[in-house]
What we know:
Layout: H1 2-15, H2 19-39, H3 43-66, H4 70-80, H5 85-89, H6 92-106, H7 117-120, H8 126-131, H9 138-149, H10 151-172, H11 184-187
Helix pairs in contact: 1-2, 2-3, 9-10
Amino acid sequence: xxxxxxxxxxxxxxxxxxxxxxxxxxxxxxxxxxxxxxxxxxxxxxxxxxxxxxxxxxxxxxxxxxxxxxxxxxxxxxxxxxxxxxxxxxxxxxxxxxxxxxxxxxxxxxxxxxxxxxxxxxxxxxxxxxxxxxxxxxxxxxxxxxxxxxxxxxxxxxxxxxxxxxxxxxxxxxxxxxxxxxxxxxxxxxxxxxxxxxxxxxxx
Length: 204
């Protein structure tokens, strides 16, 4: 039931013309995902999703939506006809390609193609959970997996996020083309040729 709610809210996020409706549907997706994780025994990740995504990012999205021109966005959405089913199908090959790359990444050491290797692959951390005692808490298990077995990929994700932040700063940075400098001596000089403010004498 929760899986169906997550899928339905995700479709509403994609197909909704009003950004406010998309935001509320996105909050429901995060909330249902957190409930599903808590029911699965992963309490830390579920509470983390509620605090970070619903409590921080959703409010940030809400402030961004408040600054948008809703009438203009709705007019453009009605003019373009929204996101129909044909436009949604365009993203399926990209999703298939990304899934195929991820599958090949998990099997990059394998020359044959037997299915049993997926469970013997050191990159798949299902075996790491088997090595850790089941009596430990989820936060301990996550800490051992991230900082012990998968520390390289954890650092790689940090570098990718740093590059994304650096790229956003570079794209939004606009250098000042002209800088007006002030010379107090030249402005206050009594000499006419040295002064910036040249006034032509009145002709009598």
